Structures are given as structure tokens and as C-alpha cells.
Amino acid sequence: MTKFLIPLFILYFVSFNARAEQNYSGNSALNCSINDKNGPSSAFLYTCNGLSKSCLAFLMFKSQPPYNTVTSISNLTSSDSEKLATINDASMFTVFPTGKEVIVPVNCSCKTTDYYQADTNYTLSTTQTYFVIANDTYEGLATCGSLLHYNPYGALDLHAGMQLHVPLRCACPTRSQIASGIKYLLTYPVDWGDNVSSLATRFKVSSSSVLDANTITTPTLYPFTTILIPLPSEPESSTTIVHPGRPPTFSPPVSPNKKTKSKRKLYVAVAATGGFVLVVCVVLFSVFLLRKRSATFVEGGQIRKTKFKSSEEIRDEIASIEHVSKEYKFQEIKEATENFSSKNRIGGSVYRGLFGQDILAVKKMSTDASKEVNMLKKINHFNVIKLQGYCKNEGFFYLVFEYMENGSLREWLGKNVPMGHQSWAKRIQIALDIANGLQYLHDFTEPCYVHKDINTSNILLNKDARAKIANFRLARESEGDITLTCSSQAVGTRGHMAPEYLEAGLVSPKMDVYAFGVVLLELITGKDSIIVQARSEVMLSTVIGSVVAKDDAEADLSSFIDPSLRGSSGKACVIELAEISVACLVQEPARRPSMADIVSSLLRIQTNVPPRISPTINSNSPRMGR
User: Fold this and answer.
1) Active site positions, annotated
2) What are phi and psi of 101, to 5 degrees?
3) Range of the domain at 29
4) Angle formed by the axes of helices 424-443 and 275-293, to 10°?
5) 48 and 186, same domain (yes or no)
6) DSSP line for 292-347
7) 431 and 369 belong to one structural domain
8) Is the peptide bond before 152 cis (omega within 30 degrees of 0)?
9) Disulfide-capable partner of 100 in 63, 159, 232, 310 (CB 3.0 to 4.6 Å)?
10) What is the pLDDT of residues 345-369, one digit of tens each?
11) What is the number of helices (H) and of strands (E) in the chain?
């Protein structure tokens, strides 16, 4: 009996495999640590289950500089440039607009593996991660897990100049698909807002065929994943679209002349809040006392009267004030940190130290930090981390900062806290703190500064969850509106870098505005860099832009809101916050708002948000600390 059952089982298995379609990966495709030890995984590539081991397949790629020409896209994907030009009704000299869908014909094969794949190679021009290559460069047509699997380098071993093998996701039709008239499969990277019905309509196929091709049982599709579109004939360029960015909600800036600049400074001064106002008051009071004590001074043997200073001169004085930073002895640093004890380690090379009665943070640096020290001496603002002192010893710099009890904004957003603790009112205050700090750097320092590395890890929170900007390692002076950096390699947190800096090395305050837009999205969604890192800030801003225009915007946006805030009061403000984020993420720097505009908008939003209602505390629960 067993003798007959085994062949029947094999026959059933083979026939079932011939009929089986592919499985939709869901967001497991974003998991870099996934493996296929227990069998082929849809989070890697598509299973080799088609009628043919090799076939012509198609990929959909959205044009993005520098991959916006026929030649550059064909080189990136190892496709035939002439076929690519023909199927897209383009010439070899065509430059596709950013966001334009480009059909890429590839040879899809599974001759040597359990998976279908279209093979290509990618040479790293900078130090990147597998995640960024898969989801940023290849837009989800590759996966982080498969890149790790098919390359000999570890996740932390990548550096510029390396060549990687990139297996692209593709598939060939199964026997049942061919029988139903399907000739080709197109691998489509899911964008924000996509759904099966709309894609089926656009590509002129039935929704059921798309559902069957991907074995989709749930209507939810995740960005940076792919689905297969079954086609009865080769795809046509008429089915492609351009994915537009949302236009800014702020008016484009006027070309600054002397008059408008002074008006803008007055507007900025009025809009600025928090710590900077306090600094202004202290300085003005100090100037008043000094004048009262001595209205004259001696110069060249003559007694001269002090001149009354204009508001512009007072502003310049404020910008040039240096606060006193103590120069510590190394022995003091060692004693405060208990010889850099592991129990005092906050994270990385930062330690907690007890200096007399004060708890401070000590950052150990192996690089020359004199530039950062000199800059921080000139910066006085509540929303910028305060440098208390420094020390240099045997080639190392030790910077001593005020201690921030709540750690980084990234850590704070990731905390599992009771509903309502991280209220909208609190998050708007944090956004306003960051905006005030950046506005100060852009408009009230002399010279003005661009931070260049604004991200949630470089925003620190004190015991009251008030935000301060930290880590000025990459900051630089910005004397003009735009400066061309000498560096040939972009440095910073990639997911937060403005496109003009990545592509051309352009540095301006507007690159901080772009990064602020990404941080604002993180405040709205609670998502960490696993999403933001892969250019999703632009994609999320696009869908938010389209949602904002609808009457049911708040309902549609609920899927993007941090789950810990979905039941909190003031949720309606997310629409306005999203609009600010969208404006910050506009590709053209000149069309982004200034930080003064953003501060003004956030102040208006803040006035309309009800204060946080304190959570009910059970009398039997432990007392909450401050």
C-alpha cells in the first residue's frame, strides 16, 4: 500500500506546485534578519514554481536621480537599454521626471536556485546598508534579507567600492495562469495609498487575478513590498504614472532685499518663544544695569559717552555672546564617571558623571572637537544642548554637557508607555522646541549655522520632555543661502538628508528644514529609521498630501498615527502637522518653508490643542516619579 501512496503523494505535490501562485510577503520583506531555513520564503524572492524556469518579466521602477535616464536605469538593473527605451516610448537621451514609473524588461530565471530572480550588480559609492540599498536604491525590488543571503559581506562590513550581487524580485507565470491567458508577470513596488482594486483598474486586469497571483487574503498592502501584476500582453507605457510630491502649504519665499530681511527678522523675533525670549530678557536687563552703573568710558585719553544701540545691534550682541565653559582636568572627569564605569555608561561613548551636586553627561571623542567646542561656546538657547565644559587628554576630547534625563527622542518614542502619556500636546511642544532651536541657529547666531544632521537620535529630552538639539559634529557656518560643500561624500543620517545635499553637496538651512520634516513624521507615526531610512518620508508625505485633500482625511490618516495616540484628544491636529511635514519635504529647497514659518504654524496649532489629561492613577499602584 505504501508503495502506491508515495508516488501518488509525489504526483499530487508536483501538480499542486504547478498550480500554486506566489505568496505576498507583507511587511516581513523589511526584516533584514529573516531566513529561509525552514523552506523558501516570500520575504526573500518569488518561489520557482512557474511552468518555465526562465522567461521575460517586467519590473516597475520609479525614476529618481541619478537613476533617471534609460542608460542609468538599465545599468542599475542589468536590463537591455534598447528594449527599455522602446517599451517606455523613450529615446536613449530621455530624462525621466522624478517619480515617473519606468517599465524595465528583465530575464527572470531560477536555473540554479529555489527562487526566481533577475540578477544585477551594484557598486557602493558610499558606505550604505543592505536595507538602504534594497529599499532606497532599488525601491523594494530587492530585499534586505536576500542581499545578506547572496553576498559574503556582513551587515556591518559594507564600504565604498564594494560590488554586490543584487537578485531582483521577478517571477514566471504558473501553468494555471498561462491556461487563463496570462503571459507575463510585472513586479510592482507598492507605494503609499496603493490597493489591489486601483492597481487592477490601472493595468486593465481583474482584481481577482491580482489577488490570486499573490495569494492575498487581506486588503492591506505595505510600502517597500512588491506584488505581481498578471498581464495578458506586454505592459504599455500608457499605464505608467508620475508619482507627484504635494505642493507646499506655505507661500514661496520672496527674494530677500534689505527691507524684507529686516521685516523677516522682526517677524522671527516675534515668533521665537521659550528659552530664547528668556535669554533676550536677561541680556537686555544686563545691558540696562551696565549702562546705569557706567554711562561713560575712556578711550584714547578722552571721556566718551556710550551710544544708544539699535535693536539690530542688540541682536548682533546676543548672537556673539559666549557663555563660559569650564576647562576640566582629566582627573575630575575620571572621578565624576568613576573611571568611565560601565554602570555610568548612557550609550555609545557617553557617560553619566557626578560633578559636585550636579549630574552631567560626558562625551568621549577620539577626533578633534575644538571646532565644536568653539561653536557651542557661542550658542545660548534653551533648545540647544548646553556645553558645560571640556577637557583634552592624550589625544581625546571630553565634552561635558547638561544631563538629559529622558534620553533621545528616538528612545522616548520607542518607550512602551501608558495611553495618553505621550500626548499630542506633548509632541507638538517637542516639535516646537526643535523648530525654535533650528530657527535660532539659522537666524540668530553670527555667523548662522546649519546643523546638517537633524534626526531623532540627535534630539535629547530633559526630565520634562523638553527638546534640545545635540551633536554639532557636522554643523557648519552658512554665510549665504546655499553653499557647495567641498566633500565628495555626503555625511549624516541618510534617511534625513535633503536630496540636493545627497545629489550635489548643496548645504543650506533648507536641508535642516527637510530633516525636520522627517522628524515630524516620526513624531506623528512613532516609526523609527527602519521606515524613514528608506526614503519613506517622501512617500508618506505624498500619501498624506493626497489624504489631506479629502473630506475623510482624519479617518484615512489613522493608519499612520502612532498607535499610542490613536485614542488621545487633539488627534485632529495631525492633519495640520502632516501639512507642515509635506511642505518641508518638497524636493526644491526654495519651496520649503523657513523655520520662522514653521514656528509660527506650530504656535497656532499648539493654541488649538487641549492640554493633556493626566491619566488616572490607581491608589494601589506605585507612586510615579517626576
Assistant:
1) 453
2) -70, 130
3) 17-239
4) 50
5) yes
6) HH-SEEEETTEEEEPPPPPHHHHHHHHHH-----EE--HHHHHHHTTTT-GGGEEE
7) no
8) no
9) 63
10) 988 889 999 998 889 999 998 888 8
11) 22, 22
